[in-house]
Write a structure and sequence with these properties.
The chain is mainly α. The protein has one domain (about 90-385). It has 16 helices and no strands.
Length: about 375
């Protein structure tokens, strides 16, 4: 069957989206629909909806997973692979370059001043994103929603409380929430058919501290396997690991890493490249990115040919709904933990509140604009006030 576009056309489109697509996962998904379905008509509405459903159903960053699926639609595994690389590569290179600059100049007063303002703004941005993600994943904050989805709200509250109190993310809690909701909402007819396994094939690269690269691969591979729906859902998992468990980054470095993800285009999850660079240089960044996106890639390409059957499975849908509610709750808990450590005085508190206010009430001002303004304010406050 001849297509309206070549594989080269599709790769060039996603390459451009990777270096110029700002606004986070929801915006990127919207761009794909506008450009590929409505304007160019390369992808049918049904193909797009199937890809979006798979991206929401399986673990993996939403925008990247949808892009990989759209590459698979007409050009199979080769299309999925090349589209995935084209989409992720530009932002990966950007965060590595920013990581180099951060390591070189991070101790200078002007760089500290920049991230003083940016870190506070990021808290406001994540808070608003968490609010929107909660409404999209569970429901609006209303009495009717609480009555209808009381079990999902219970998972949300418990995960939020556990993350806030322990300052760690509990992956076991996510799985438990998924299993409980599946058994209550849509118990499978055959439990033996409902399995969920992730194969991570990663090894130490070259002679560059192979043992540390192996730890990075395992940790970020696990992180990639628990990102449901939005790239920001990975924040609490990363925070618990790189700050609390391994001590690879300080609290401030982690907040700065999230900020870098906000000011660069492409998938938000690419912050793992920046984090990996701070941990172990270029190969740390490469392994962290590969390990994070490998589950996303496999869990898109492998079920894609059979997805119509999978999409109709109510038990799997219920399992994912339960996990998503707990993950979003953990994200809100992580915002509380990080916020208490990043909002340290009146200026940072005002910046966080102003960032949230602008995002809620203004559609013209986007996250990168807020980050740049916050950086300028940070310099003014720290160096001149």
């Amino acid at each position: 069957m001849s297509q309206k576009y070549s594989l080269k056309d599709l790769i060039l489109y996603f390459l451009k989206l990777g270096y110029a697509g700002f606004g986070g996962p929801v915006a990127l998904v919207g761009y794909m629909h506008r450009d590929l379905v409505e304007k160019r008509q390369w992808i049918s509405e049904e193909e797009y909806k199937n890809g979006l459903a798979l991206a929401q159903l399986a673990p993996g960053p939403l925008a990247a997973q949808l892009g990989i699926y759209l590459g698979f639609v007409h050009y199979g595994v080769l299309g999925a692979t090349l589209v995935g690389v084209a989409f992720v590569l530009p932002s990966f290179l950007m965060v590595v370059l920013l990581g180099m600059a951060y390591q070189r100049f991070g101790g200078l007063p002007w760089m500290q001043a920049v991230f003083y303002g940016v870190g506070a703004a990021v808290i406001g941005i994540i808070a608003v994103s968490s609010y929107k993600l909660t409404q999209k994943s569970i429901g609006k904050f209303s009495l009717q929603s609480l009555k209808t989805n009381w079990l999902l709200w219970s998972f949300f509250v418990v995960a939020c409380a556990v993350t806030s109190i322990t300052k760690e993310e509990n992956a076991g809690l996510f799985v438990m929430a998924g299993l409980v909701y599946m058994l209550v909402k849509a118990p499978p007819t055959s439990l033996s058919k409902t399995t969920n396994s992730v194969l991570l094939l990663q090894a130490g690269f070259w002679e560059y501290d192979a043992s540390l690269l192996w730890k990075i691969a395992l940790f970020f591979g696990e992180a990639g396997a628990f990102v449901f729906g939005s790239g920001l859902a990975i924040v609490p998992f990363l925070h618990a690991g790189v700050v609390q468990q391994y001590g690879w980054l300080t609290e401030q470095q982690f907040v700065d890493a999230v900020a870098v993800a906000m000011i660069t285009p492409g998938p938000v999850v690419i912050t793992v490249g920046f984090i990996g660079y701070l941990i172990n240089g270029f190969w740390g960044a490469t392994v962290a990115a590969l390990a994070t996106f490998l589950p996303c890639y496999l869990l898109t390409v492998l079920p894609a040919p059979y997805f119509q059957k999978i999409a109709q499975n109510k038990s799997i849908k219920a399992f994912v709904d339960g996990i998503t509610a707990a993950v979003v709750g953990a994200l809100v808990g992580a915002v509380c933990v990080i916020g208490l450590r990043s909002v340290v005085d009146i200026p940072t508190a005002l910046l966080a509140l102003a960032s949230a206010f602008v995002l809620i009430y203004s559609k013209k001002i986007k996250e990168p604009h807020i980050i740049l303004i916050a950086a300028f304010i940070g310099i003014l406050v720290k160096m001149y006030v």
